[in-house]
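Is this the right way to post structure tokens for a design question? Let me know if I should format differently. Anyway, here goes:
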């Protein structure tokens, strides 16, 4: 008689259904999260405060997202992603509602906490384990890349959706509508529900949570990967939130910021797909170094070129090619190092570094802008960090830990 619980014994759902549900959830959660830059000016003007409180609220969201992704990933790896998606989906709904009704900076900070908690269980990092376990090893990087592509497609839809809502019903009512839209996450949790099998393919033996952390923390390449992902978060959060305000400061119309961020989303789909396929031809560490090196050119262009609306959109498209293309390569390296049993949790730790970078980027951008009324220093910092990340990925050793190469006892 099997000792498995009914949840553990439930037949696996087809990969296409897992990818469809996970991709739709990611598209909703991360696509709508990326439109927050459209609300920086109207909300700050409504409350009569500078840009720092809103920027700090988004920084809190990103920091909370990173910290709780580890918890969400551990629960999803142990018990399945379904219950995590329900709780975090409701938190996402609440965050947009509270932002719409905010009266003080404190309300924004609480909304930021809820937003971070929500996306911790509905974003790419929380679902890489479910997708990674559902896909065979040779298709894992491409399957995880589909989540990044879904995020880009979600942003592509979310920006015009939010922009049209703001223009037609106002920014407060638009946030209420977005809050209701996020309720769609709840029924989509079903295909991802169910306890994972207790012994995953690719693992020489099962591990406890403490053993998984101990192994990862003693692995040098894991720390290099974690350090590099800090830079990714710094870049993405700063650019996504502050670009519309940067465009406005240049005297350009609001549509430029919307179209620039849409260009990021469109190019991200192409770049993430290419990154997902690149693992078959070059080492993932090489791909990551290339991505970060290429980002530096986009920031140099924004700092030094005479900017026009269409040039900003073109530069944003260039940056979009190297936007979430880091995710399939970074998360797959975690799976290569340690297997898939605790993949969401361990990638969640790497992602915490990403969110610390997001927090740093948003806090620093708000602080420096309010002090200098310019983003020039931030562009220089982004360039330096891009070059640092390109260098730090190069020494990574792309191979499994000894535990995965040991032959199991017969």
């Amino acid at each position: 008689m099997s000792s498995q619980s009914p949840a553990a014994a439930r037949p696996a759902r087809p990969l296409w259904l897992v990818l469809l549900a996970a991709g739709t959830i990611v598209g909703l959660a991360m696509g709508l999260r990326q439109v927050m830059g459209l609300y920086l000016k109207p909300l700050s003007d409504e409350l009569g405060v500078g840009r720092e409180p809103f920027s700090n609220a988004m920084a809190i969201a990103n920091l909370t997202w990173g910290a709780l992704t580890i918890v969400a990933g551990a629960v999803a790896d142990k018990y399945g992603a379904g219950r995590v998606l329900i709780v975090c989906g409701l938190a996402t709904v609440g965050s947009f509602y509270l932002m719409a009704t905010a009266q003080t900076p404190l309300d924004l900070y609480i909304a930021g906490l809820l937003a971070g908690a929500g996306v911790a269980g509905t974003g790419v990092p929380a679902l890489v384990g479910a997708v990674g376990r559902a896909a065979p090893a040779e298709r894992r990087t491409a399957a995880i890349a589909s989540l990044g592509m879904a995020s880009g497609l979600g942003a592509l839809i979310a920006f015009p959706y939010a922009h049209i809502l703001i223009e037609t019903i106002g920014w407060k009512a638009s946030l209420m509508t977005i809050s209701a839209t996020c309720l769609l996450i709840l029924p989509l949790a079903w295909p991802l529900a169910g306890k994972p099998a207790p012994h995953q393919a690719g693992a020489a033996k099962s591990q406890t949570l403490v053993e998984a952390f101990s192994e990862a923390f003693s692995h040098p390449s894991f720390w290099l990967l974690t350090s590099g992902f800090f830079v990714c978060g710094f870049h993405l959060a700063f650019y996504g939130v502050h670009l519309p305000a940067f465009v406005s400061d240049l005297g350009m119309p609001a549509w430029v910021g919307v179209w620039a961020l849409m260009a990021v989303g469109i190019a991200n789909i192409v770049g993430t797909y290419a990154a997902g396929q690149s693992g078959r031809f070059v080492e993932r560490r090489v791909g990551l170094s290339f991505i970060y090196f290429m980002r530096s050119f986009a920031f140099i262009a924004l700092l030094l070129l005479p900017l026009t609306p269409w040039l900003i959109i073109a530069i944003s498209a260039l940056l979009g090619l190297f936007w979430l293309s880091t995710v399939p390569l970074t998360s797959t390296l975690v799976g290569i190092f340690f297997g898939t049993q605790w993949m969401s949790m361990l990638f969640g730790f790497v992602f915490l570094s990403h969110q610390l970078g997001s927090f740093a980027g948003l806090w620093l951008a708000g602080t420096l802008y309010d002090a200098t009324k310019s983003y020039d220093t931030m562009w220089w910092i982004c360039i330096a960090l891009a070059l640092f990340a390109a260098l730090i990925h190069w020494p990574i050793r792309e191979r499994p830990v000894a535990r995965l190469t040991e032959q199991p006892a017969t």
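Format looks fine. Someone answered above. Worth noting: The first helix runs from residue 6 to 9. Confidence is low (pLDDT under 50) at residues 1-10.
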